[in-house]
Design a protein that fits this description.
Largest sheet: 8 strands, mixed
Strand content: 5-15%
Shape: globular
Strand order of the largest sheet: 3-2-1-4-5-6-7-8
Structural class: alpha/beta
Number of helices: 15
Radius of gyration: 19 Å
Number of strands: 8
Order of helices and strands: EHEHEHEHEHEHEHEHHHHHHHH
Helix content: 40-55%
Oligomer: single chain
Distance between the termini: 50 Å
Length: about 325
């Protein structure tokens, strides 16, 4: 059994640590809040995120990065995308250049439009040991051993195979993919579309509208992916269509529920203060919109969500805007 460092103690970090713990690995968690680390060590539970999940005594936690990474044979990073660079810089102070690293955070870096793996490559070096995991995987269900599937993407097939074996269980089926750009763009883009679907739910526009948003949102994601050299097939797979479906329809999706709140006149700031959750789609929206403008890609759904989030645009007017756009071929 391996010694694994899990960097991040939110809902997804807690679920993944539980999964690896259940396979018999020795898991060392890093928590930003020392109170969470202390509680995990004392009770085997995370008091804030997924508090019903019970760890074995193999799990330990610390707010000291060097302790969490001591003798780690692999590292799983599960921090909010906005903090990935700063966290990676702390990891770099301790980690060996050959230790495999996989990131589960989804998004693009503001200002640079870098993918999460690209940040790690820049900060940690040795790109061949870096991978990303993405798919229709709500932490709440994974932590209850509900059957799920996911994708591990890496430039190196050996690295992808390593993490496939590390994470695979009878209830968590892991596929590999070498299109790391496509997998990561799917993970970022689907969160933006989910906010739009939440708006649809909040405005009670019905199933037809929601299905249309999901379908056109997927096309939007694929256009941007093509411009960045991603493979079109990736957007039809688990990281694309699969994650899009679950994020746009599930009660667990904070991106979708943010959209509902926006439809009722709420704000991003109010939602995050109330839930104490980071909404990755809100940050990804600004980065994707910036990237699309740079690449000259038409992203009307992303543009609308950006205007609602950051320019006080009306949700009702946004629906009219989408429906009154110039007619075109579906294949454009």
């Amino acid at each position: 059994m391996a010694k694994i460092g899990v960097i991040g103690a939110g809902s997804w970090g807690t679920a993944v640590a539980w999964l690896l713990d259940g396979k018999g690995h020795n898991v060392q968690m890093w928590a930003f809040e020392s109170e969470i680390a202390d509680a995990i060590n004392a009770s085997g539970r995370n008091p804030i995120y997924l508090p019903k999940v019970q760890f074995s005594d193999r799990i330990s936690a610390s707010s000291d990065m060097a302790i969490a990474l001591e003798d780690a044979e692999a590292v799983v990073m599960v921090t909010p995308s906005i903090g990935v660079r700063a966290t990676a810089e702390k990891v770099a102070e301790t980690l060996s250049i050959d230790t495999p690293v996989i990131i589960l955070s989804k998004g693009l870096e503001s200002g640079t439009s870098l993918l999460m793996t690209e940040i790690l490559e820049e900060v940690l070096g040795n790109p061949d040991r870096i991978a990303a995991l993405s798919g229709p995987n709500h932490a709440e269900e994974v932590s209850r051993a509900v059957p799920s599937a996911t994708v591990v993407a890496a430039h190196s097939q050996q690295t992808a195979d390593y993490f496939q074996q590390l994470f695979s269980t009878p209830f968590f089926r892991v596929y590999t993919n070498t299109d790391i750009t496509g997998v990561e763009l799917c993970g970022a883009g689907k969160n933006v579309v989910a906010i739009a679907c939440g708006l649809c739910d909040g405005l009670r526009l019905g199933d037809n509208a929601k299905a249309s948003l999901m379908t056109r949102g997927l096309a939007e994601m694929a256009r941007l992916g093509k411009a960045r050299g991603a493979q079109s097939e990736t957007f039809q797979g688990l990281a694309g269509m699969g994650d899009l479906i679950v994020t746009c329809t599930s009660k667990h999706s904070r991106n979708r529920s943010l959209g509902e709140e926006l439809a009722r006149g709420g704000t991003l700031e109010g939602y995050q203060q109330r839930t104490k959750m980071v909404v990755e789609g809100a940050m990804a929206c600004a980065s994707i919109y910036e990237l699309a403008q740079t690449e000259g890609i038409d992203v009307p759904i992303t543009q609308l969500i950006y205007q609602i989030l950051y320019e006080d645009y009306s949700a009702e007017l946004g629906v009219s805007m989408l429906m009154s756009r110039p007619l075109k071929s579906e294949q454009e």
